[in-house]
Each structure stands twice: as C-alpha cells, then as structure tokens.
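Worked Example 4.2. Read the sequence first, then its structure tokens.
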Amino acid sequence: MFKKKKKRNPEADKENLLISFPSRSRYAEAYRTLRTNLFFTSMEKEIGSVVITSSVEKEGKTTTATNLAYTIAQSNRKVLLLDCDLRRPHMTSMLVEGKEKGLTHLLNTDLGVRLNQGSLESYSVADLIQLTRLQQRTCCLDIENPETQVAIYFKKGRMKDIHWKNRPESKKLANTLIQENQLTEKEARLALGHQKKSVQRLGAILYSMGIVSKQELSKALSIHTIEAIRAVSAMREGSFTVSSAPKGNGMPATGEELDFEKRYYEFASNAGNLPYIDGVVEQAIKGTEAENLFILPAGSIPPNPSELINSKRMDFLVRYLKKRFDFLVIDTPPVMPASDAVLMAPRTDGTILVMRSGNTERKIVQNVLDQYKSAKLPILGAVLNDVNMKKEGYYQYYEKYYTSYYGN
C-alpha cells in the first residue's frame, strides 16, 4: 500500500522564519552570512535578483528564500518575494492569509484583458500598447480626441506602423518633401492621384514610381514617425477602439522595415506611464510583518504552470518588478519534477540551490547541475540545510568561536 503523503503545516513552518528569532541568534547570523556571500559572488555587477530552488522537494528552499529576503530587507533594501511555485505555493500559504488574487490572476486576467474600446481615463496610451504587445494581437488601435487622431497597427503584438490621421497639412509627407526640394508639386499631384486608386501609402507609391530616392524617403518617413509618436504619446484624454488590421497596412514604404517599436520607446514622452498596469500590480502585491519586505502571492494554481512561467507576460512582469524593487527573491518548484526554475533563471542574476544534508543522492544533484550547465545558466551558490554539526565534529569549534565573539 502507498503511504498517504503528509500535508505540510504552514503554521509549523512559520516557526523557522527569521522574524521569530533574535537578531543575535546563530540562525540569524547564518542568513546574514548567506546575504554577504551572495553580494560578493559578483564583483562586476550588483546582484539584484535570484531564483531559489532545490533538486527535489522538502529541502528547505521556501524557508531559505523567505529568510534570505528578510535578511536583505534588513539592509534597507526594498525586497519582493515572488512565489513562482505555481504547483505547490507553500510560501503563499505561510505569509498570506486567505485566498488572495496573485501572480496567476495578474498574468492571465489583468495583463490578458482584451480591450475593444474604452477611455484614456482608465488606460494610458502606453498601457494600451503594452497590453497589445503582451497579448501578441494583430490589430489596429485607433486613438482619438478632438485635437488628435492616430492609428497604430500591430502584427502579432509588434508595432508595424503608426498613422497620424489628422496630421497638419504643412507636415504631410508630400508637403515636407516639396519644402525639402525632393519633390515638385506636379510630381506630388501625380503620386496623390495614384494613391486615391490604391490601398498603398504615399511613401510606397513615391518609391515605386522612382520619384524620391530611398535615402531621402527613409529620412522623411523617420521624421514623420517620430512626429506621430510624439502626437499620440501626448494624448491624456480621449477614446480608443481596437479592430482587425486592414490588409496591406503596415507595409514598409521603401522596401525596408522601420523599427517603430524602437522609435516609440525612444521618443514617446509617456512610454513609462502605465497607470492601469501600475494599479493591477499594486493590488496583487502584499505587505508582510517585516519592514521593506513584500510578497507577490502565487494565486490560484493554473493548469499550465510551465507555459505561464515561460510566457512573454512573465518576462515583462519580472523586468517591471526589477524597476520597482531593489531586490527580487523568486521561489520556484524543485528542478527534477518541473522545468520552471530553469525557465525562470535566465531572467535573474542567478540561482541558489538548496540541499538538505543526507536527503538527496549525489547523482540527482549532479543531474541538476548538468541541466544548468547545458543551458549556460549561472548557479551563484548552494545552501546546505540541516547539517548535524555535532555528528560532523564542527559543533565544538563553532560554539567556541561564536560565544567568544558575541560574549554570550
């Protein structure tokens, strides 16, 4: 007969959290040493995020992650615990009371909301662009108010074109090229006549007719793109609609792709203004009993943990959280039963592997190390739990050293 698996008791596990121990205890000192060693693992760059995992379950990874985060928070850093063990979210059950919306709701529902229309009172232009990117939509985003009307075209979430519909007459492409002596009024009328009979943009027609050189047209279109980006990013009021992108739109006008996304993030005045995203993330993050220490709970257990961990939305969220917090400590499932830790590791500065003394066979640990080596992922260090110091002969030395230093 199979033995029934013993259910973990979050209340009992709380007894191992540092917040319950005196700051001068050996237990607290061990985690301060871990914190110091972690920050000295790289002299070239400052460590700001780590994955905490283990080879198999019941090695103490969640307790280690929580206590390490608590110790880092004591050094006057704003620290976030991110519970990415979406299979058995033990950290959440230890630190968060009740069923709170967490990571899975944030990724699936809040960042997955498919908008068809709305107001800029609820979503900024930057929110709308970011949500479209994360959902990898192919669509046209029309944004307008009495002063400005702009259409942004996306293909699988990537910005492919931007059209300032009510661009002032003096700033339209034909007039700009005429002012720069790259186009005559007769040539402009001829090209505009062709455009009325075609779905192509004027730039593509001018190039195909050989009227304007590729270099001059690219220069003019780049300026037009920047002007459109500045116009739409300045919009604070108005409405938006999302529809299917018409065929033939977003095609390069010169045979070359303009990098609209790069230009948007270079020239948009409010590219970082994300009131909707700021709000939903703020609702998901919870405070803890410790100062400077916060947690993003796992939320409900999803049917597809690995796919969620490996998603573009998770990638965006980790980058976003790095800007809001001084340090991220990410708890993941053990490596052997799930790939989540290996999928999450590239987004961080490295991994700490937790092992319980006498619990795991060496070949299993070696297998984990081989997986990281094969993926070229750094392991910053290892934590060995539950070492019997009396048995190993360390206790007498450690007791003498610690007592003489602290005088108790």
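Now turn to a second chain, presented in exactly the same format:
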Amino acid sequence: MATGGALLIDQGSHASRACLARADGGLTDPVSVEIAASRSASDRCEHDPEEMVASVRGAVADVLAGSRNEPLSAAGIATQRSTIVCWDRKTGRALSPVISWQDRRGAGWLERLGPDPEEVRRITGLVPSPHYGASKLRWCLDHLPEVRRARDEARLCMGPLSSFLLFRCLEERPFVVDPANASRTLLWDFTRGDWSSVMLEHFGIPGSCLPGCVASRYDFGTLESQGRTVPVQVCTGDQAAALFAFGEPRPDTAYVNMGTGAFVQRAVRGRPPEVPGLLQSVAWQEEGRTTGVLEGTVNGAGSALEWLSEASAVPQQTLLDSAEDWLAGASRIPLFINGVGGLGAPFWKPACPVQFVGAGDVAGQTVAVLESIVFLLAANLEVMRSVLGPESRIVVSGGLARLDGLCRRLADVAAVPVERPAGTEATAAGLARLVTGRSLATSQGGQAFEPGENAGLAARYQRWREALSVALSE
C-alpha cells in the first residue's frame, strides 16, 4: 500500500475526476473534466473514446500541476463498470465508440440468443442483461468492419473501459483487467476469477482479444504527467470503490450510492448467496481476500432527472436546485414508473415503460421521480433482507444523497436509520482507502435520518408497487 500521498482517478458517466489523497488523510479539491454522451436512440448511449482519454489525462495534468509539492507514492483508478471499448493492439486507436453501461442496443440479440439464466447466474453471478458487456462486444463484432478486420489480423483488443484507459494512459500499455470490471461482462467466472470458456463460446467472443485477468491490487504500470511518474497499483469499478469510502464495509450495513444510477450493496466474505433478482458482485479481490457484495441496481437515478428535464423543458440544474423545497412542500405527487435506462434489479425488464401515473405539475413530477428511486431501492432492500437478514443502517453517498428529503424518505420507507457521512463523494474516498490503507479524515461526522411514520409516503409506495406490476405485465 502507498505510504505517502496518492493520485486518485474517478472516471464516471458525466466526467473524469482526479484528486490527491494527502498523507495527512485529507483530499485535495477534485479537478473535473466533463465528457459528452451521445444518445442517437432511446436504447443507445455512447462516448467518444478520444475525448474520454483526453478527459482523464487533462484531469490528471491539472491536479498534478496544482500540487507540485505533494509527495505521491501510488495511484488508483476507478471507472464506470459494464462500459466497453474495442481498440487496436498495435496503435491503441479506438475501433468502436465507448459504449456505456446505460446502453441497451444488444437487448434484441440477447433475447434471441436466449442464454440459460441459471447457467449465467451460476457462472457469472449476473442476470443476462444487455447492460453488461457481452452483448455490446458482440454488437461491435457484428456491426463494425474495423473490429472484425482487427480480429482477423490478430490485433484486436476489446473489453471494459478500465482496460482501455490503462492501455492508453500508462507507459507500459498493459492489457489487463481487474475483477470488478471483468465481472460486469457476463464473461467472467466468479469462482475461477478468470474468463469462462462456456460464456465465451456462448456469446461468440474470442478470448484472445480480451485482457488478462489480474487482482484488484496489481502493478498495472506507470502514469507520467507534468514531469512526474506515479505507479498505478489499484484499479476497480466505481461502485466497488464506493463501498470502502467510510471504512471496511460492514455486513450489517446497506451501502447506497446515488449518482447517474443508484446502487445498493451489502458486503459478504467470498461469494454472496444466490438471490433471484439480485447480483453477486465482486468488490475487491487479491490473494487471500475476496470481498463480495449482494447488489441491486437502479438504472434511473440522476439519469431519470435528466429524462424529466428533457420531457418538461426545465433545466436539470433548476430541478436539482428546487428539489429540496419540492420534497418538503409538493402536494400533488403522481407516481413514476421509472424505466429510464431499462428497469434493473430486482425486476429486470430492459423495455420497461417510462411514464407518470396520475397528474402533477413539475414540482410534483420531480418528487415522483425522486420517490421512484427510493421505492426501487426499498424493493431491492426487501429482497436482500430475505437472505441476509435485516440491516441495522443504510449509509448513503453520491450527488443525490445531498437531498435531505430524499434521505428522510429512504429511512421512512425502509424503516431503518439512514446515515449520510460528511463526504458524499464516495468513489474517491473509497479509492483513497484502497490505495493507501487509510480512511480519510473527512469520513467522520455527517447526519443521521431516523425512520418515522409517513402515511402518505407509505400509501404511495403501495400504489407504486401495484402500478409497476401492471406495467410489467403489459
């Protein structure tokens, strides 16, 4: 582990961020470089790969330029999971777009292929969903001539975004992948910790084109910027890093991170139990230690507010700025069937409707969208409790966790105390702990929300469950 300061890189759906974990336990202010997303159809979401690489390099250069006297002994990188790229092994040039985890273009192909859900779950811990990498990689092989040509000429690299960024940003051009990102491809064998020959054959993905599987902590290579050279020792997924933001994850705690999507995780040692509708994920793996999580995913969190912004022609920042007041005072609140990005756990319907049930103005609709996030999280928590028992608390992080009204609703619906630590940017904080072995000084304090009686909210939750059942049956 790093004994001094550490460079932290967080590549997310909307921006690439970089900051430093100082030796005294604090974080420098992050540098953020936004990236654009292209949505040419309702089921598509992709990024420009060169813009992606430039955003990471730019964020790193800026944070290093502003902290020239800060000693650094290591670096770590966390990326959005389930996002893939294809590139040229010889030149590093991207041969495909960066296809986002939100992208569902492979849904029809995956449905026609009809993989056995039980076999997929047994091997990978996942459900056969187009959000994960396999159908995206297959789409590239089927639709992009440059990808096929590179495959035929034995120069094709394909795999998670993390592998592409390591290849392009590190001097050694490593072609490797960590467990958290590999496990989001539908091609990784959870038990073996390597690619599954069964899944590779089933999806028609050449194993020779995929990166080598390594541990979460590994000598990935060196990053050079601003005249400094920093060894990269940790690579993982953004939600995996977030789990460690506030110390070693506790099995009696549900960890909720709310950004573009929302994710709820409960940690276990080793592989989690099999629970229909939920995911068996790996958060950290190195020799002698595997931290697994039982995970539920809500695809429409911040992205659902983005959808409402477009539908209502109200800027998204206006919705966010007004959300706290509306959560406290809106009176006409409809229900929201939150199929934004496809319905995730525990229901899994990629083509779920996106619609309001009942009338409401923009204030009421904003509250309905936010409540749908709470309701989906609560549905996942209920399934988790059936196997792991009740959680004693919920720890929240991410941009939407700044809303008191949202945290209070989650506590009321889940009937469990919700704790919001002082630092809600969990990915960087967790990455700092994984790289240095130290928790941040800013991880203490925060605010607690005790559960209370909210008859109106409870009634809306029940009506929402009924309305969702109707939508899923159509």
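Notes for the reader: The chain has a mean pLDDT of 94. Residues 220 and 328 are 48 Å apart (CA to CA).
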